[in-house]
Amino acid sequence: MSASPPRPLPSTCEVLVIGAGPAGSACAQMLARAGLDVLLTDQQDFPRDKVCGDGLIPDAHRALDRLGVLDAVLARARGASHVGCVGPRGGRVDVPATLAVLPRRELDELLRRAAVDAGAGWQARLRFEAPLEDGDGRVVGARLRRADGGSHEVRARWTVLATGAAAGPLQAAGVCTRRMPSGIAMRGYVRNEAMDGRITALEVVWHRALRRGYGWIFPCGDGTFNIGVGLTHRPGDPQEGDEQAPMRDINLRELFDAFTRVYAPARELMQGGTPLGALKGAPLRCSLEGARWSRPGLLVAGEAAGSTYMFTGEGIGKALETGLFAAESIAAGGADEAVRSRYEAALAALRPRFAAYEVANRINNHPWLADLVIWRARHSESVMRRLRGVLEETHDPGNLVSVGGVVRLLMPSS
């Protein structure tokens, strides 16, 4: 049954938000709360599936709290108190944090409904085709393709593009600076009730066989698990050669099979469980790169703007934050340049954290670093506090694997 309300498709609004994932729905909710006429659209009906690890780390909790939906999310999510980090040699450390897992099919629908409840209009099955522009090249809305093949134009004072990692919409909007993604991931859901009490943390695994990637198992509750693999890299890094090289020869299914081969709990989960649908893959856009963040009349939010962290592939929290930034920038009013300046300054303030995760991505490229960090964390309360600080965003993850950080890890006093 379609989640779309039976209402006419409007031709004008104050703000048109294209894409109803975390960034788009967060933006639409906050703008509707501020009293603006907002139309939220998506190319799919909701609820819909979304390839993701589904993990909600502390930054996502804070953003969900700002949106007033944290309690509703936690009531449906599987809570967890630790991230289990597992190194190539089998060493493990459980890092405490406030965590939860909720499939994106449920999370995104909850966020979309919250936006509609706040007063945002909603229309599904509308695919973004191109921006509408005035004589000066300012974006004044969008041309959208309906499910019946016809097109519809919506004029708006502001347009927010929150269409995810696909390069097509970014190119159509004239803001794409790099087609290639900065990562890829594959995940599936498996039901295995026998392992429900055995895997209770959000488990992340590094191993040489994962070819500069990582594997994960996240418990969803009721004997269901999200299991997957991911790989991230920095396109254009001179150490990597040409920007397509790290992705060219990667077969995600082979990477997934390697994960189940080298990590016994993953193997047991798959061998004794029942897959709930097929494995699905998706691109990732990381490090706030790959697209311009704005142009006159248009803001780019969420993974379209590269809101996913390098190294971990986590992106829900930062996608929500970019949506909130976009809403705050527009709601504050003023001339185009003032709105764009506010938004770009907010994103720029996040850049050092994203840069730190790029440094931390060395662990994916050199899994022995995971062994070192895990070994030291098991013997040092200070290192454990630093790992927890990474999850809480109070400690720079890059410091753990910088040259100086590695030296400190090797020192008995650290």
At the first level of CATH, the class of the largest domain is: Alpha Beta
Based on secondary structure, the structural category is alpha/beta
Report low-confidence residues grouped into runs of 5 or more: 1-6, 237-245
What's the overall average pLDDT, rounded?
90
- CATH topology value of the largest domain: FAD/NAD(P)-binding domain
User: What's the helical proportion of residues?
Assistant: 25-40%
Distance between the termini: 57 Å
Compact description:
Helix content is 37%, strand content 25%. By secondary structure, the chain is an alpha/beta fold.
Annotate the secondary structure layout:
Layout: E1 12-18, H1 22-33, E2 38-41, E3 55-56, H2 58-66, H3 70-76, E4 78-86, E5 92-101, H4 104-117, E6 121-123, E7 126-133, E8 139-146, E9 151-161, H5 167-173, E10 183-191, E11 202-205, E12 213-221, E13 224-232, H6 245-248, H7 252-262, H8 264-271, E14 274-275, E15 280-284, E16 294-295, E17 298-300, H9 316-331, H10 336-360, H11 362-365, H12 368-379, H13 381-392, H14 398-401, H15 403-410
Helix pairs in contact: 1-4, 1-9, 2-9, 7-8, 9-10, 12-13
